[in-house]
Amino acid sequence: MTPARSYPSQGAWSPCEAIGLAATLGVALYTSGVFALYLCGLSGGDAAFLALPPALCVLLLGGRALRTARRGEAAPDGGGPRAAIVAGSLVMVAQVAFAAYGAVRAPFGSWDAWSFWALKARMFAAGGPLPGYFHDPVTVYTHPDYPLNLPLAEAAFLRVPGPIGVVTAGLVGVALFAGLLLLFYHGLRRLYGRVTAALGTAILALVPALPLQAAGGDADAPVAAYAGAAALYLLLWWRKRRVADALLAGLLAGGAAWTKREGLPIAVLVLLALAAGEAVARDRPARGRIGAVAGATLAGALVSAPWLTFVAWAHPIGTDFLPLTPAVLLSNAGRAPHITLRFLLETCVIGNWSLLWVLLAAILVMAALSRRLSAQACGLLLLLAAQFGVYASVYLFSGWASYTLHIQASIDRLYAQAVPLAVLALVEATQGLPFRGRFFTKEGGAEGTALRDTPRAEGWVASLPTPPHKSPTPVRQGLRGRALEIHEPTV
User: Fold this and answer.
1) Residue 257 CB neighbour total at 10 angstroms
2) Which of the ends of the chain has fewer CB neighbours closer than 10 A, N or C?
3) pLDDT recorded at residue 373
């Protein structure tokens, strides 16, 4: 039997990651530079022109450094059924094409996209908002307290005259959605091989709400792209221990904070998860662990610093929420049961989420019963639970006349932001299930390498003798009754 193999550089760097980072992180760095120049007194047009060369230089230099850092990294080989890889790739292409068709057919088709995201974009395309816009109660419905990543990216295309500018501006969300899929495929391939990468990314692409949100022009699909990519690189850091992955997790978390107000708690949770992981990893030098956390935090602050500085200085107005005080919390504590019930019922809306949440719950039950849930899967699930905890708690401070209408109007957008993290937790949780090798692997495929490289299969496992039977993936009972897969040597 051919054993599972790893190659030193295959899959460590690919055009998928380069394009995905350019579509997500490149946009955030560019728009952050535009806003920083705008705060320095430049008009919207001048700032948009002057911010482009530095952003391109940062992308080129960062890409070169990342490629150098990945040199010598072991990646799973390309084994597995080719039909699954082709099918998953076709699903990704079809979903992106569907979202692009919707965006071209009806640019900024949703109410929020046209009423305030595109409105802000037109303001900056025309030179910048009018004086006093961020404190004007007449235009408070446009949410002046929302970050400006998406409007500034759209403003760069709205400067093109005619309908072409409007159509291309409406495709920004689709580009970010495509970037998320490319990063997902590349990251999952580094971890588990091509088959799992293609199937996992296809599951993400097939969640109905994501392409619809991307086509509609809302900021929730971009937030999902940044938050999901940040969680992906967090998992890569936990698995591969490459400093570049920790820095990218911080940068993408900063992009989430720079895209929408909900992105700030997401970014904080990602950085806290990274810090918690380093706090329990006492088998590694403290200097390296502290450096990774500090580097990721500074990277996230680099992207969102102009907006956070502006908010702390100007205090733009908003009307959605009441002050975050203990008095408001205690007075609205009676809302908690209804909020919890509404969040649970949302998981059953098949038209938005297909069977994602049901499948995730089933996989988690099976993994828990078999006691094969990895530490990384537990970390992702805790991150997902914390994210939903923040989402549910904010409705206790809702300033709407009816908080139930507030939930009804926005709960699907919050769920859309958490979809990539849920899919990532789903894929990671399946890695320890007893039956997964029958469906995802061939003899000597990439999936065997991924399973062999998990923390349970390191160290003393490599020295265990090979069982004499002919099973392609023999199983031996390890410490504490855990099943461990051992690969036979080449005969």
Assistant:
1) 29
2) C
3) 86
Triad 398, 264, 386: Cα angle to 5°:
75
Measured over the CA atoms of residue 135, residue 141, residue 145 and residue 151, the dihedral's sign is negative
In a domain, 437, yes or no: no
Only one residue has tokens 């019922």, namely 345
231 located within any domain: yes
Contact 187, 236 (CB under 8 A): yes
Whether residue 486 contacts residue 461, with contact meaning beta carbons closer than 8 Å, is answered with: yes
Cα 65 → chain centroid: 22
Count of structural domains, the chain = 1
| Residue 472 pLDDT class (50, 70, 90 cuts) | very low
Tens of pLDDT, residue by residue over 339-377, are 999 999 999 999 999 999 999 999 988 888 878 888 999
Structural domain contains residue 159: yes
Instruction: Determine contact, residues 225/210, Cβ cutoff 8 Å.
Output: no
3-state SS string for the chain: CCCCCEECCCCCCCHHHHHHHHHHHHHHHHHHHHHHHHHCCCCHHHHHHHCHHHHHHHHHHHHHHHHHHHCCCCEECCCCCHHHHHHHHHHHHHHHHHHHHHHHHCCCCCHHHHHHHHHHHHHHHCCCCCCCHHHCHHHHHHCCCCCCHHHHHHHHHHCCCCHHHHHHHHCHHHHHHHHHHHHHHHHHHHHHCHHHHHHHHHHHHCCCHHHHHHHHCCCHHHHHHHHHHHHHHHHHHHHHCCHHHHHHHHHHHHHHHCCCCCHHHHHHHHHHHHHHHHHHCCCCCHHHHHHHHHHHHHHHHHHHHHHHHHHHHHCCCCCCECCCCHHHHHHCHHHHHHHHHHHHHHCCCHHHHCCHHHHHHHHHHHHHHHCCCCHHHHHHHHHHHHHHHHHHHHHHHECCCCHHHHHHHHHHHHHHHHHHHHHHHHHHHHCCCCCHHHHHCCCCCHHHHHHHCCHHHCHHHHHCCCCCCCCCCCEEECHHHCEEECCCCCC
Could you tell me the residue range of the domain that residue 421 belongs to? 9-70+81-430
pLDDT (tens digit per residue) in 35-47: 999 999 888 788 8
